[in-house]
Specification:
By secondary structure, the protein is mostly helical. It has a single domain, classed as Nucleotidyltransferases  domain 2 (Four Helix Bundle (Hemerythrin (Met), subunit A)), CATH 1.20.120.330. It is 76% helix and 0% strand. The protein has helices spanning 3-24, 28-51, 61-68, 76-92, 94-97, 105-127. The longest helix has 24 residues, at 28-51. It starts with a helix and ends with a helix. The relative contact order is 0.17. The mean pLDDT is 92. InterPro entries: HEPN_dom. Pfam families: HEPN. It comes from Candidatus Brennerbacteria bacterium CG_4_9_14_3_um_filter_43_9.
């Protein structure tokens, strides 16, 4: 892996560990924030590694996945990533949250499952170069 890709990758892994720690500590909103950051940074690692360009300054995960130019066999992932991005904004900005709360593992279970599938898929692409 290129040096610049490795930097993004290591940050992604750190956010992944933070997300798991927060999830296990019942800090569900913060875990979603960290899961989002992990995906954002692993996508940026893939952009640097495979496309050889500076990644765009964007938090939109569906957009960033497209920028990686990786062949995605599951088109639903773009919808799932858009949903994860919405949760990121809700956690980051309380005025956007409205009535959405993250009070249990059960409430965020599907988001976490979707995160893991996509994150591990991209991680596999990066470490098996």
């Amino acid at each position: 892996m290129k040096v610049d890709s490795q930097i993004w990758f290591e940050q992604a892994e750190e956010h992944y560990r933070d997300a798991e720690f927060c999830l296990n500590g019942a800090r569900y909103g913060l875990s979603l924030y960290s899961y989002h950051q992990a995906l954002e940074k692993i996508f940026k690692a893939a952009i640097v590694e495979f496309i050889h360009k500076i990644p765009p300054k964007s938090h939109k995960l569906d957009f960033l996945l497209k920028e990686t130019e990786l062949t995605v066999n599951n088109s639903r992932w773009y919808e799932e990533l858009a949903i994860i991005t919405q949760h990121f904004w809700r956690v980051r900005y309380p005025d956007i949250r409205l009535t959405k709360t993250y009070s249990s593992k059960e409430k965020i279970k599907l988001i976490v499952i979707n995160f893991h599938k996509i994150y591990l898929w991209v991680k596999n692409k990066l470490i098996n170069i």
